[in-house]
User: Which sequence fits this backbone?
């Protein structure tokens, strides 16, 4: 996909008009060589050097090729393809060995220029503003070498972030700090973990879809299962990506998932709110590819009414499990010494339970209880709006 950004077109003067003043100066210098003295030879050498520098600059401006032609689909460098927008920063972060292609820069301070580099030996290029180090088009990678280049970027990302659990959402690719202690895993999540681990031990890849209303603890359960499996995990916040005011479209998200998995090659993939992206051939294909790449695919959905039956068949999702309410034992383990509040809090979505616990820890039990009716009213209003 070509970038809509383009440099303004500049109409160049004919070459003879640009070099005419230089030719005039050269003739003037030649006329001064009649009976020259030593000092005249020195002045002549200085002027000639200055004239040479200016002539070279004029030549550069006149015959330099536009940077905007370098990556054109129908140009001489059509072997380049643009990196999807949501991963451009991730690629640029790991580029090394940067050089400039002087044939595609006219030397003017305000002109764009072609920049070339590599990621672990794989070529990357972009167009940069000459006035400041800002990318105005790209980056691009070599056509036919996309997967190898993306894999090199992904390996550097794992090392750079220093974690075996990554999350991709509105803040880009970051560490996913979702370590879940054994005692904080719900009974149902524990059973699902044991079931998936049994299939894993026999060499079977496995995919699981948890279905339930918002706030029933699906995301917490998926995180605890992924953590319990001991695999490198990529979690994609689909709902959060789509809720951004200027976020990617549904089609862009589906296309971006392919690139993200090629980059990171995770052992387990966790997809939040998969029902938000709808079902089409691209999503079906991605789930099959994800199952082939990752040993486990875990996903959550608020419901399946908008999903095609093809999405729910084994191979895309081997198991579809209802997750109807928060687990009482889980709430008790989260409350610790305040487990007597579990029955009341079990009626709230998980996010509100966490908020109550945070208030209890900071403000104290009595103050948190005094504010609990407000949390309950907010939870009810949110549920009604949904």
Assistant:
């Amino acid at each position: 996909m070509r970038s809509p950004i383009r440099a303004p077109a500049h109409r160049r003067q004919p070459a003879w008009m640009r070099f005419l003043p230089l030719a005039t100066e050269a003739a003037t210098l030649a006329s001064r060589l009649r009976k020259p003295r030593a000092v005249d030879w020195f002045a002549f050498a200085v002027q000639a050097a200055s004239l040479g520098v200016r002539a070279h600059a004029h030549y550069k401006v006149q015959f330099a090729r536009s940077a905007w032609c370098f990556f054109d689909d129908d140009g001489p460098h059509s072997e380049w393809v643009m990196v999807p927008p949501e991963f451009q920063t991730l690629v640029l972060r790991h580029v090394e060995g940067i050089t400039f292609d002087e044939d595609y820069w006219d030397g003017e301070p305000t002109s764009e220029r072609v920049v070339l580099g590599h990621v672990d030996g794989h070529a990357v290029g972009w167009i940069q503003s000459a006035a400041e180090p800002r990318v105005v088009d790209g980056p691009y990678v070599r056509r036919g070498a996309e997967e190898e280049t993306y894999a090199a970027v992904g390996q550097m990302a794992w090392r750079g972030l220093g974690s075996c659990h990554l999350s991709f959402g509105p803040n880009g690719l970051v560490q996913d700090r979702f370590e879940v202690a054994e005692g904080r895993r719900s009974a149902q999540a524990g059973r699902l973990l044991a079931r998936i681990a049994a299939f894993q031990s026999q060499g079977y890849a496995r995919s699981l879809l948890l279905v339930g209303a918002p706030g029933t603890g699906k995301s917490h359960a998926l995180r605890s299962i992924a953590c319990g499996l001991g695999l490198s995990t990529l979690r994609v916040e689909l709902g959060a990506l789509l809720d951004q005011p200027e976020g990617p479209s549904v089609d862009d998200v589906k296309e971006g998932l392919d690139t993200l998995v090629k980059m990171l090659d995770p052992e387990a993939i966790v997809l939040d709110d998969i029902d938000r992206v709808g079902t089409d051939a691209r999503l079906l294909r991605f789930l099959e590819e994800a199952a082939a790449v990752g040993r486990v695919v875990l996903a959550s959905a608020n419901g399946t009414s908008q999903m095609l039956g093809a999405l729910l068949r084994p191979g895309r999702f081997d198991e579809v499990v209802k997750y109807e309410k928060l687990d009482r034992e889980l709430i008790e383990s989260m409350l610790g010494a305040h487990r007597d509040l579990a029955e009341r809090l079990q009626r709230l979505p998980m996010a509100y339970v966490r908020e109550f616990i945070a208030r209890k820890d900071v403000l104290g039990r009595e103050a948190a209880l005094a504010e609990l009716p407000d949390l309950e009213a907010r939870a009810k209003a949110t549920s009604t709006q949904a």
